[in-house]
Amino acid sequence: MEIKMVDLYNQYLKIKTEIDNSIAEVIKRSSFVKGEEVKIFEQNLANYLGIKHVIACGNGTDALQLALMALDLNEGDEVITTDFTFIATIEVIALLKLKPVLVDIDVNTFLIDTAQIEEKITEKTRVIIPVHLFGQSANMEEIIKIARKYNLYVIEDAAQSLGCDIYLSDGTIKKSGTLGDIGCTSFFPTKNLACFGDGGAVFTNNDDLAFKIRAIANHGMTKRYYHQFIGVNSRLDGIQASILNVKLKYLDTYINSRINSAKYYNELLKDIDGIITPHTVPWSNHTYHQYSIIVKNNKRDNLIEHLNKHNIPSMIYYPLPVHKQPAYKIYNYNDNMFKNSNYVSQNILSLPMHTELTPAQIEYIANALKNFSYK
Ligand SMILES: Cc1ncc(COP(=O)(O)O)c(C=O)c1O
Predict the structure, then answer these.
(1) What is the Cα–Cα distance from 259 to 75, expressed in whole angstroms?
(2) Is residue 315 helix, strand or coil?
(3) Is the dihedral of CA 362, 13, 176, 158 positive or negative?
(4) Rounded to the nearest whole angstrom, what is the distance from the C-alpha of residue 134 to the centroid of ligand 1?
């Protein structure tokens, strides 16, 4: 049985005609950059998210950078975020000469531990960036409460959580990435909503921020060849937008398929003492961008080997927490403050998870996990 970590080709085959036609249409009209498809996609995504403005851009890293650039921050201003994320979240903070202030994670959910945010706030703190890791949301109500109290901006890193629902205490449901001042996402091929290359988007309900972000993404230009801001060149191209326009229609189906696969994994794996299956938070659903387990008793490397022998791929997201990354040693993080991210990075393992996973494949993977000695 051939099992892939992510199966993009079979997903494509199911909608091949629609995708091929939409790409052909862009080529026919040669609207490769800043064309109609991009405008339509921005509007479609805004409708889906229930937000006023969507600005498409080159990738998810750029989306975060554009968001920070729009906020008039000064060198040395502090940005609070999680110690356990893909490096892009931190990279953009450092590149803009801001200071990444890291918070440990909750050991069960792998999300930023909101109880530890307030103690990291100083007079230089300006922004909090929660990361909705692996497809479920950080505790946004709690984070927004803290941000309001200290007058901070919130930029949501929703690169892994597009389509995730957040259940607010007043009974309303909002989409992940739409509660903070600015939300950012990625359309990298493995993401919940994915294109056939690089792509990203920034979203906001704030008209002024939207105006500025759109300008910064296009060389700071507000009128042709008039540059009001120092900007960058970060654009989603027409072909990617046309693919995303097709795939957005299937996003909820894709998420349901991930959720069903996760449920089946949970059911089959629940009696294995040597692993912990993913925890879910009460304030959002889980879109299972990743299905990540904890392997107990320091057995992760042996388990990976065992899975490899059965041709089952697995991945470690992420083997090193940010505070231990060589490039970020300059910030002198204190290792003792990151007990949970240290533990999780040493014991976490992501199993195959994608929209095309079959029950038979999940059974095969679960059997291999059962036939392993965790002692
Ligand atoms: C949490 C997180 N933030 C940001 C990014 C950056 O997105 P991109 O790869 O599109 O630049 C990613 C994706 O790789 C991510 O997982």
Answers:
(1) 42
(2) strand
(3) positive
(4) 11
Best mutation site among 188, 193, 202 for ligand 1 pocket (most ligand atoms within 8 Å of CB): 188
Q: What's the count of helices (H) and strands (E) in the chain, helices before strands?
A: 12, 14
**Rounded Cα distance, 251 and 244, in Å:** 10
Q: Is 21 left (phi over 0), alpha (psi -120 to 50) or beta?
A: alpha
Q: Domain residue spans in the chain? A: 8-102+111-248, 251-370
Residue of 85, 86, 131, 176 to test ligand 1 pocket, by largest number of atoms within 8 Å of CB: 86
Residue 1 has pLDDT above 90, yes or no: no
Find out whether the beta carbon of 348 lies less than 6 Å from any atom of ligand 1: no
> pLDDT tens for residues 81-137?
999 999 999 999 999 999 999 999 999 999 999 999 999 999 999 999 999 999 999
pLDDT greater than 90 at residue 153: yes
Q: Please identify, in words, the CATH class of the domain defined by 8-102+111-248.
A: alpha beta
* pTM score, whole prediction: 0.98
Centroid of ligand 1 to alpha carbon of 42 (angstroms): 19
Alpha helix (H) ranges present in 108-197? Answer: 140-150
How many Å separate Cα 305 from the centre of its chain?
Answer: 28
C-beta of 156 in contact with ligand 1 (< 6 A) = no
CA distances from 19 to 27, 34, 109, 249 (A): 13, 19, 36, 12
Give the length of the chain. 375
CATH of 251-370, one of 2.40.30.90, 3.90.1150.10, 1.10.260.40, 2.60.40.10: 3.90.1150.10
pLDDT of residue 266: 98
Atom number in ligand 1 closest to CA 85: 1
